[in-house]
Specification:
499 residues, alpha/beta, Rossmann fold, 6-stranded mixed β-sheet, 5-stranded parallel β-sheet, 48% helix, binds pyridoxal-5'-phosphate
């Protein structure tokens, strides 16, 4: 199978090259030429398999230039090597009939980014061999908090790679920051930037397409790649857990094989929900995809009106990993909905870059609203949802998951649709302990106690165990305390690769 760029479909590469490059040279994103099919017979076969075997089966449909043996090695290393704290890396928890929570945070950094970033370095090292790459691959990452740590954890000490991460210095939780600045490994670098996630992401994207910078990197025997969800190698492992969740629902009797489900995803860069869309297009029976945003509700508006407009105030919320106004992966959806129209996509993306907005045609708008429903939830209702979910089910969720649970309630109220649902849980509540405790009525403690006391308190209040990796942050050496200006990203990268 070939991969083509959303901004120039004449550009066509194999999956190994798409994963190695991350982003196409003219700024477009790689997508599979066509989306492979998954029949109900195929799905039936997967019901009795382990997560790793389900993964190998789905990955093989997309990464056709990898051998099954190679994909199995990748999947076993990622999901089978004791890196995940639960039996299945992506367990489905039933809250009540029709409401299922897909817990994607049992990996080493306690957020769903591990699902892809534990396997991406394995894909990449194999892709380098396949493409005869002898240079060092430098992974450039812009993070709203969770990607950075997950990428660092995945790439730390991986031969032939270096990784540098930029995070908004005032835009992440204390735990998230601690996780990143204490990262171990001899090939890693972390820097804060004085700006928000969009500044970090735009800065990183600009380096990719900067010819002078790329020439300098080559002189230092380096090439760039990306671990952001613009990299196809990030998206494809995410398709797996939607297929897997459906199989688990069949196995538990929540649905019969072939029955439709709804999927609700707390969304930022549109990567996670896009993977759900691809799962649906492959053949997983899905009725509706529900896109949940926090107060940065640019996607809610887009799905409701067909107009994308990032010209609005950026809000800092208690669900910081969704504080995003430029959702990169929407480009892939638009490419697909427009029937692979690279000219149209290029025009929209140019308008977005130059004017900050674009509007899709009526037929695309129609397709959008048939497939998707969108809603948003502010900090007040996010906290209320954490409180209510805890009281009703004795189940504690983080701030991002709460946005999805709240929006899904809105969806049910507005539509009356009672299709069984999977609501995606993207982070452990311990990662956002201060906001979660404050929602649970422990305001004064949340504002006075240190991070580690808060972990203990949340464990008492929720009855959940503190994840080992967070406990171990106590006393870890702070290695990276630097912060740079928005226009200093390239200088920071150059200094790092010369080391
Ligand atoms: C990254 C992240 C999101 C948003 O995911 P996208 O793929 O960017 O839409 C939601 N919740 C958490 C906890 C995250 O880390």
């Amino acid at each position: 199978m070939q991969y083509i760029s959303t901004r120039n479909k004449e550009l066509s590469v194999k999956s190994a090259a798409a994963i190695k490059k991350g982003l196409s040279e003219e700024g477009g994103l790689f997508v599979p030429e066509e989306i492979p099919a998954l029949s109900l017979v195929d799905l039936k076969k997967l019901v009795n398999l382990s997560y790793t075997e389900r993964a190998v089966y789905i990955l093989k449909k997309y990464l056709t230039d990898f051998l099954v043996k190679e994909l199995r090695e990748c999947a076993e290393n990622a999901y089978g090597g004791g890196k995940f704290s639960s039996d299945s890396p992506a367990p489905l928890v039933n809250l009540e009939k029709g409401t299922n929570i897909l817990e994607l945070w049992h990996g080493p950094t306690c957020a769903f980014k591990d699902m892809a970033l534990q396997i991406l370095p394995h894909f990449l090292t194999k892709a380098m061999k396949k493409t005869g790459e002898d240079k060092t691959v430098v992974i450039l990452v812009a993070t709203s908090g969770d990607t950075g740590k997950a990428a660092l954890e995945g790439f730390s000490n991986v031969d032939g790679t270096k990784i540098i991460v930029f995070y908004p210095s005032e835009g992440v939780s204390d735990i998230q920051k601690l996780q990143m600045i204490t990262q171990e490994g001899n090939n890693v670098c972390v820097s804060g930037i004085k700006g928000n996630f969009d500044d970090a992401q735009s800065g990183v994207k600009a380096i990719f397409t900067d010819e002078v910078a790329n020439a300098e990197f080559l002189k230092n025997n380096c090439v760039m790649s990306s671990a952001n969800s613009i990299n196809w190698g990030r998206l494809v492992p995410q398709i797996v857990y939607y297929v897997s969740a459906y199989c688990d629902m069949v196995a538990s009797g929540e649905v019969e094989m072939g029955d439709k489900i709804n999927i609700c995803v707390p969304t930022g860069n549109f990567g996670n929900i896009l993977a759900a869309y691809y799962a649906m297009k492959m053949g997983v029976p899905v009725n509706r995809l529900v896109c949940a945003s926090n107060s940065n509700n640019v996607l809610t508006e887009f799905i409701k009106t067909g107009e994308y407009n990032k010209n609005r105030d950026f809000r800092t919320t208690i669900s910081p990993s969704m504080d995003i106004l430029i959702s990169s992966n929407l480009e892939r959806l638009l490419f697909d909905l427009s029937g692979n129209d690279d000219k149209k996509v290029s025009k929209w993306m140019k308008d977005l870059a130059e004017k900050g907005n674009y509007k899709v045609s009526a037929d695309i708008k129609k397709k959008l609203s048939k497939l998707f429903w969108a809603g948003c939830c502010d900090d007040y209702f996010t906290k209320e949802c954490i409180y209510k979910t805890n009281k009703t089910y004795g189940y504690t969720i983080d701030t991002h998951t709460a946005v999805a649970v709240d929006v899904y309630e809105q969806y049910k109220t507005e539509t009356g649709d009672m299709t069984p649902a999977v609501i995606v849980s993207t982070a452990s509540p311990f990662k956002f302990n201060q906001s979660v405790l404050s929602a649970l009525g422990k305001d004064s403690e949340a504002n006075s106690m240190d991070e580690f006391a808060l972990l203990d308190l949340l464990s008492n209040v929720s009855g959940m165990e503190i994840p080992e990796s967070l406990k171990n942050l106590k006393g870890a050496e702070k290695r990276f305390e630097g912060v740079c200006e928005k226009n200093e990203l390239l200088a920071t990268v150059s200094e790092f690769i010369r080391k």
